[in-house]
Amino acid sequence: MSSPNAVTLTGVRAGYGATPVLSEANLTLASGECLAVTGPNGGGKSTLLGLLVGLVRPFAGTVEIHGRSPRRARGRIGYLPQAARLDLEFPMTVRDLTAMGRIRSTWLPQRLRAADRAAVTELLRWVGLAELAARPVAALSTGQRRRVLLARALATEPDLLVLDEPEAGIDAESAERLQKLLSSLIGSVTVVVASHDIEGTASLATCGVTVDHGLTPWSGDGQQDDSPRRAGGPPSNTGDHLPEHASPIGGSM
Length: 253
Ligand SMILES: Nc1ncnc2c1ncn2[C@@H]1O[C@H](COP(=O)(O)OP(=O)(O)OP(=O)(O)O)[C@@H](O)[C@H]1O
Fold this sequence. Notes:
The protein is of the alpha/beta class. It contains 7 helices and 9 strands; from the N terminus they run E-E-E-H-E-H-E-H-H-H-E-H-E-H-E-E. It has 2 domains: 1-73 and 159-166 and 189-226, P-loop containing nucleotide triphosphate hydrolases (Rossmann fold, 3-Layer(aba) Sandwich), CATH 3.40.50; 83-158, no CATH class. Helix 4 packs antiparallel against helix 5 (142-155). The chain binds adenosine-5'-triphosphate.
């Protein structure tokens, strides 16, 4: 049975080797919310995101994604890692990298179904890369790489989308496009986005947290929120962030 919360962190301590980065981190996030994760360099934003996707294991405490461990939930988590942590110089096309998101198992060879191929085509159209589907990923610009990785993350049809600095290294136009793409997802997918673009991210987010070796929640108006549990659910779609394209999540996919 799934938990009412998309994300629950309870008493989490985490770090690397013996060095703690986060202490006593508590957080709950309802389905369909968009959490902005901000904070200084080295404060622990990527560590928090790593906990959510199961790449970082807590020293103590628990992390649950819809009531399950991140490892058990990972088939339903889409993850966009920080650009600097990725080597995309391998020989793979835009279409193939996106299609990796449709593969449910990493060890069984699988043939993509026609529906999977159609979903990949639709996602590439949605992120504006349909024309570049056959191009090697290594030959893409930084902004195009961020978009194809977003397409791959979305190809998993995630319940939870975890994005680490999606706007890093991309120009203003691409950043605006990315914001529109993300805003069209809010309400249908739970989104956690770490960013140094506080203004842009806060305008999308339904709640936020500053990470500086601990978590300090802040509310939508930028004020500190004393409760680690967010009141209220996701906003109704008021049309404030109208997307250029309808979200490809759900519907025919
Ligand atoms: N794989 C690792 N091994 C050891 N230490 C690490 C590792 N990854 C991160 N750290 C350390 O953990 C701390 C938190 O790093 P983290 O990447 O989570 O911060 P951040 O808030 O995402 O920073 P930035 O804004 O610079 O991306 C830093 O002191 C960093 O040096």
